[in-house]
Amino acid sequence: MLTISRSLYDKIVAHARADHPDEACGVIAGPAGSDRPERFIAMMNAERSPTFYRFDSAEQFLLWREMDDNDEEPVVIYHSHTATEAYPSRTDISYASEPQAHYVLVSTREEDATEFRSYRITDGVVTEEPVSVVE
Amino acid sequence: MAIEVRIPTILRTYTDGAKQVEGSGSTLGELFTDLEHRHGGLRDRLVDNGGGLRRFVNVYLNDEDVRFLSGLDTPVKDGDTVTVLPAVAGGAL
């Protein structure tokens, strides 16, 4: 299960809405091993595309080094789908490389309702998990 | 002295769990070949069949993405740090 605060949940949705119709992406870092998402980092989508995302490599390097220095890890890795459902695509599955992370997908295809779902992706296997939003 | 190579979580199965390993070589390609002697299978995750860097792996020399240097031909020397990070990527299709 992903447990996430209301304010971080809202930040992910706001980022996805702001970048629509391009895909938005980012990380919520937390203390290593804690499974607690705490620090929100919106990342650039280097592809600036409505159907693909990729973290900018220089920005990713700096963030990964910073997390390493702070004993943090990417607890949540999120991105948006802007015309399809919030379910991992084949490309999402094949590039998933952080087995301890919650992969959050947000769909902005409906203007007035945002789908927000979370998955584990390990060795090509997708497992959806419940999302608990805490105030 | 040697070249320090930082290994991401997902590739630590090839390094017995080690977060960083050491190797030698005069180019990045030689370094990966040297690592392969002690960490069999690792090179295959970094280099594709055509002998280039895999598309969804980022490799940095110190803090520079080697794609903006000379890829696998990038010169390396003792004291350098090479960092491997899987690209974070995906999309709707």
Descriptive keywords:
heterodimer, A: 135 residues, alpha/beta, Cytidine Deaminase, domain 2, 6-stranded mixed β-sheet, two-stranded parallel sheet, globular, B: 93 residues, alpha+beta, Ubiquitin-like (UB roll), 5-stranded mixed β-sheet, 2 helices
Biggest sheet, spatial arrangement of strands of chain A: 3-2-5-6-7-8
C-alpha Rg of chain A, in Å?
Answer: 14 Å
Order of helices and strands of chain B: EEHHEEEE
> Any idea what the radius of gyration of chain B is?
13 Å
Proportion of residues in β-strands of chain A:
35-45%
Question: Could you estimate the helical fraction of the residues of chain B in percent?
Answer: 10-25%
SSE pattern of chain A = EHEEEHEHEEEE
User: For the report, how would you describe the main beta sheet of chain B?
Assistant: 5 strands, mixed
* Sheet of most strands of chain A: 6 strands, mixed
Q: Could you please say which CATH topology of chain A applies here?
A: Cytidine Deaminase, domain 2
* CATH C-level category of chain A: Alpha Beta
At the fourth level of CATH, the homologous superfamily of chain A is Cytidine Deaminase, domain 2
**Low-pLDDT segments, ≥5 res of chain A:** none
